[in-house]
Each structure stands twice: as structure tokens, then as C-alpha cells.
């Protein structure tokens, strides 16, 4: 996929891009996994992360003043971060629209097998969350499951954003560790 | 509280995950994070595991989402309102008793002919009452309707019904279901009765819900998006949130359950299947279930049950029996 993308652009503008392509290829080799991880963290979706990363490399290939940039790596992550913000904004518009339009939001993915899986999964999380201080589980559920940002959780819980981040991090580490125990006995 | 211990990589990965979540983490944070990632190859792997869990939780189905939010992040606004209502209930009660009118009016009501509506197993019915109020009656349900001079009185003796009430302040509309009485204040709402357990879910307007037993006085108001569950064993009502889609689900051939004991789930499923389920071991009935079940796919739901609960399914000619799973031998 990457190769196709690079050659496509090379064909368009061979002279200036030849330098770029090798640089961007190096970035891809060394940092792609971290870039995807960074974007997945922002976007809550691996497929969106892959899509945005692709777009970020494309921007790197087509940018003009590359001599102004001291670190290509930082620039790549900055571009990707900004694209992620755009993506989230579009998602929000679309989901607000869908919520206003649709009455059947909960109708998809309802096969018994899907539910069996979901229920089992939820049971594990539920156990893990019960072991936590209530503030930690609450902040975690509001942020990760309800999708509220730290500022809105902080406001609802009357805590500082710093405390909310502290609780969410603790809860996340705990849930991850508990689920790992179950999955890898 | 359990002792919380995880290894330092897991904790660090979770800290980084939280720090990178928001846009202001741009630049400096990302650089520091990349340094951490390059220190040890396990670091990025641990971080990816955080992403994986967060993505799975962020994309749960609607019902599971709701149940977790309800259990751990129930809105404080609802809680506060509930508290106020129970406090207010006492004073309202004093006012009613002092007036004496309510009790007298209840007894002065003349006897009026009662219309009874029933539905068979697996059959939902739509009914329009004489005042234009629309009722969707669930399967295997019985509803009696008695419109008096002063009041419109409906009794749900079993099953489920969804009401879209034509409001008339001169003639209050009330649904009795076991110990619970629901009074409409211009509304659409659903009442489900499973033996003595009753749930009321409101999709529009408000209702007042009362415990009818003589020694249990008090009224609770519920508005659109709220679900009140009455459990005779705990003798209490609990409030949770519910979407209009969830309330409507059974009218679209899908039964939805949020944190309900398996015996309640089974009793309601049995209203829709000719092959009734039977719980052989009482402890199984207390297992809590959250999920939705398609009425045309009850069999496959049953087949999937042993994956979720420690139980065994045996098919008989006249039904299905759920019993305790054999104790597993670990080797």
C-alpha cells in the first residue's frame, strides 16, 4: 500500500519528490507503529488511525518548505495530530446528525453470539471496576465509555482535570491488568 | 477495596495513554512519549494494549454501554431528584390525608363494566381505547380496562403494555400492576409485569409511580428517558435511564434487558416462545443478564447461553431446561 502511494506521487513530480520519498520511507519504517499507536489513542479506532496515518504521510510527501523543518519526525506527529482533530470533529458532526435522524441506533449488531461476547466482556470489566475506588471507576466510565472529555468529566465530578486524568489512568491500568489475568491464565 | 498492583510498565503505559489523549499533548508530550517508547520494546506493546482495551470499551453495543454507565457513572442529577422526591412524598402524603378527599373519592366510585384484553403466546396486539388512548399489548399479556366517571383505570395483570395516553386532566389515567400504580401526567410509557416485579419506562411526558401496599406510601415521579424498577424482594424502586429505542424494542420483535435476573428474562421470553424455558436450579435465576434477544432467534440465543453463564441447556419435547453446569475439573 505504501509503495503504491509513493510511486504515484513520484510520477507526478519526480525531481523534488525523490529526496522526500526516501525520507518519508525512513519515517515510515522507524515510526509507523508508534504513529499508529499515537493516533489510535486519540481516535479510539485502529482503522481510523491507519487512515489518518496514510493521509499524514501523503502530506509529508507533498509539502513545500521542507528545509524549514528541523525534525521530520516531530512534524509527522504534528501533522497527524492535527488530522486526528479534524477527523474527530467530522465524526462528531456525523454522529450528532445520526442521533437526530435515527431511531434505530441500537438495532445493529444484535446476533446472540455478538451479545454473548459483549456480555462476557462486560462482566470482566464490571468486576475490575468494582475493585476500584468509586471516583476512579466513574471517571473511567465517563471518559472511555461515555466518551466525555476530561474537562467535562472534571466538571461533572467537581474535580480538577489533573485528578480526573489520575483516576482514569489508574482505572485503565487496573482493568488492563485484570483482563490480562483472565485472558492469559 | 482490592489491593491494586500492576507492574510499572502497565502503569506507565496507562499514564502515557491519558497524557496523549488530548490535543494539547502536542509536541513536547509526544517527543517525551517517543523517548519512552524507544527505551524498551515492551513499552510500545503495553501502550498498544491500552489502546486495544479503550477501543473495545468505546465501541460496546448500546445496551452494555448503558448498563456500565448506569452502574458506575449514573448521573448525580437523577440521584438528587430522587432524593428530593422521597422527601417531598412525605409532605404530599400529609396533605392528601388531611384533605381526606382522595380516600373518599376512591370509595365513592360506582361499578362500571370492565373490558378485558388478552393476547396469546408470541402475539403482540394493538388496541385503541374509547378515549383514543393507544395500547400496544405484548404477548401473553392481560389488560383490563375500566373507564369510570372520574377515572380511567387500567390493570395489567401479567405481561407488558405500552401506552400512549390521550391526556385529560378531568379523568386521570392510571395503570395498576401488582404493587405498583402508575399515574399519567400526559404521557407515553411502558409497563411490564413479571410476577410481582414491575418496570415502568417513560418515553414522553411524566408519570407518578406509587407503591399501592397500604403500609408503603410514597410517590415517585419519572420523566422521559427514565425507567423505574420495582423489586418486591428489596421492596424498593430504583431509577435508571432508558432510550426510546429500548422501550420500543419488544414492539419490533426484540426483547431488551438491562441488569435483570435470569428468571425475569426467562419469564418474559416465555411470553414469546411455544417451547418454554424452565430454570431447574434456583440459583441460576439470580444471575444478572444484560443484552437483547431477537424473538425470531431465541433458539440461537439459548445455544449461546452456556458461553456466558455456568449452565447447561437440555432440549426436551415440550421445552428447554436450564440447569447448573457440571462442576468443571481443572487439570
UniProtKB/TrEMBL annotation, chain B:
<keyword id="KW-1133">Transmembrane helix</keyword>
<keyword id="KW-0812">Transmembrane</keyword>
<dbReference type="InterPro" id="IPR012373">
    <property type="entry name" value="Ferrdict_sens_TM"/>
</dbReference>
<dbReference type="GO" id="GO:0016989">
    <property type="term" value="F:sigma factor antagonist activity"/>
</dbReference>
<dbReference type="Pfam" id="PF16220">
    <property type="entry name" value="DUF4880"/>
</dbReference>
<feature type="domain" description="FecR N-terminal">
    <location>
        <begin position="12"/>
        <end position="52"/>
    </location>
</feature>
<feature type="region of interest" description="Disordered">
    <location>
        <begin position="218"/>
        <end position="242"/>
    </location>
</feature>
<feature type="transmembrane region" description="Helical">
    <location>
        <begin position="84"/>
        <end position="105"/>
    </location>
</feature>
<dbReference type="InterPro" id="IPR032623">
    <property type="entry name" value="FecR_N"/>
</dbReference>
<protein>
    <submittedName>
        <fullName>DUF4974 domain-containing protein</fullName>
    </submittedName>
</protein>
<dbReference type="Pfam" id="PF04773">
    <property type="entry name" value="FecR"/>
</dbReference>
<dbReference type="InterPro" id="IPR006860">
    <property type="entry name" value="FecR"/>
</dbReference>
<keyword id="KW-0472">Membrane</keyword>
<feature type="domain" description="FecR protein">
    <location>
        <begin position="116"/>
        <end position="207"/>
    </location>
</feature>
Amino acid at each position: 500500500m505504501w509503495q503504491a502511494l509513493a510511486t504515484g506521487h513520484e510520477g507526478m513530480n519526480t525531481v523534488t519528490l525523490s529526496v522526500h520519498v526516501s525520507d518519508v520511507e525512513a519515517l515510515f519504517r522507524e515510526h509507523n507503529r508508534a504513529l499508529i499507536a499515537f493516533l489510535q489513542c486519540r481516535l479510539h479506532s485502529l482503522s481510523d488511525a491507519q487512515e489518518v496515518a496514510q493521509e499524514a504521510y501523503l502530506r509529508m510527501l507533498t509539502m513545500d518548505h521542507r528545509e524549514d523543518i528541523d525534525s521530520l519526525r516531530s512534524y509527522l506527529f504534528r501533522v497527524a495530530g492535527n488530522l486526528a482533530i479534524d477527523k474527530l470533529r467530522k465524526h462528531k458532526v456525523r454522529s450528532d446528525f445520526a442521533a437526530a435522524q435515527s431511531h434505530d441506533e441500537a438495532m445493529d449488531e444484535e446476533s446472540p453470539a455478538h451479545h454473548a461476547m459483549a456480555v462476557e466482556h462486560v462482566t470482566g470489566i464490571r468486576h475490575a471496576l468494582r475493585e476500584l475506588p468509586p471516583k476512579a471507576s466513574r471517571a473511567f466510565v465517563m471518559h472511555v465509555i461515555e466518551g466525555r472529555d476530561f474537562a467535562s468529566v472534571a466538571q461533572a465530578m467537581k474535580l480538577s482535570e489533573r485528578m480526573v486524568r489520575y483516576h482514569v489512568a489508574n482505572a485503565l491500568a487496573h482493568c488492563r491488568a485484570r483482563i490480562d489475568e483472565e485472558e492469559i491464565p | 477495596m482490592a489491593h491494586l498492583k500492576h507492574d510499572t510498565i502497565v502503569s506507565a503505559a496507562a499514564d502515557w495513554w491519558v497524557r496523549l489523549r488530548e490535543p494539547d499533548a502536542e509536541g513536547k508530550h509526544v517527543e517525551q512519549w517517543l523517548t519512552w517508547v524507544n527505551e524498551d520494546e515492551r513499552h510500545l506493546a503495553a501502550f498498544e494494549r491500552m489502546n486495544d482495551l479503550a477501543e473495545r470499551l468505546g465501541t460496546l453495543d448500546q445496551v452494555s454501554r448503558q448498563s456500565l454507565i448506569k452502574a458506575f457513572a449514573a448521573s448525580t442529577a437523577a440521584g438528587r431528584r430522587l432524593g428530593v422526591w422521597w422527601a417531598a412524598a412525605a409532605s404530599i402524603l400529609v396533605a392528601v390525608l388531611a384533605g381526606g378527599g382522595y380516600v373518599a373519592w376512591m370509595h365513592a366510585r360506582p361499578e362500571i363494566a370492565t373490558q378485558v384484553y388478552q393476547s396469546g403466546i408470541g402475539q403482540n396486539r394493538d388496541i385503541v381505547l374509547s378515549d383514543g388512548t393507544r395500547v400496544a399489548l405484548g404477548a401473553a399479556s392481560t389488560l383490563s380496562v375500566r373507564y369510570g366517571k372520574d377515572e380511567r383505570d387500567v390493570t395489567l395483570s401479567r405481561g407488558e403494555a405500552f401506552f400512549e395516553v390521550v391526556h385529560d386532566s378531568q379523568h386521570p389515567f392510571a395503570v395498576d400492576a401488582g404493587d405498583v400504580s402508575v399515574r399519567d401526567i400526559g404521557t407515553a410509557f411502558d409497563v411490564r409485569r413479571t410476577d410481582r416485579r414491575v418496570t415502568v419506562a417513560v418515553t414522553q411526558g411524566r408519570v407518578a409511580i406509587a407503591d399501592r401496599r397500604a403500609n408503603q406510601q410514597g410517590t415517585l415521579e419519572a420523566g422521559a428517558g427514565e425507567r423505574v424498577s420495582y423489586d418486591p424482594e428489596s421492596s424498593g424502586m430504583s431509577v435508571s435511564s432508558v432510550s426510546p429505542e429500548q422501550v420500543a424494542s419488544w414492539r419490533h420483535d426484540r426483547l431488551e434487558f438491562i441488569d435483570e435476573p435470569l428468571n425475569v428474562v426467562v419469564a418474559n421470553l416465555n411470553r414469546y416462545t411455544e417451547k418454554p424455558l424452565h430454570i431447574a436450579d434456583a440459583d441460576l435465576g439470580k444471575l444478572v443478564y444484560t443484552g437483547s434477544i431477537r424473538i425470531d432467534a431465541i433458539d440461537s440465543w439459548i445455544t449461546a447461553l452456556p458461553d456466558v453463564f455456568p449452565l447447561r441447556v437440555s432440549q426436551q419435547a415440550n421445552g428447554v431446561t436450564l440447569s447448573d453446569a457440571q462442576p468443571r475439573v481443572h487439570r
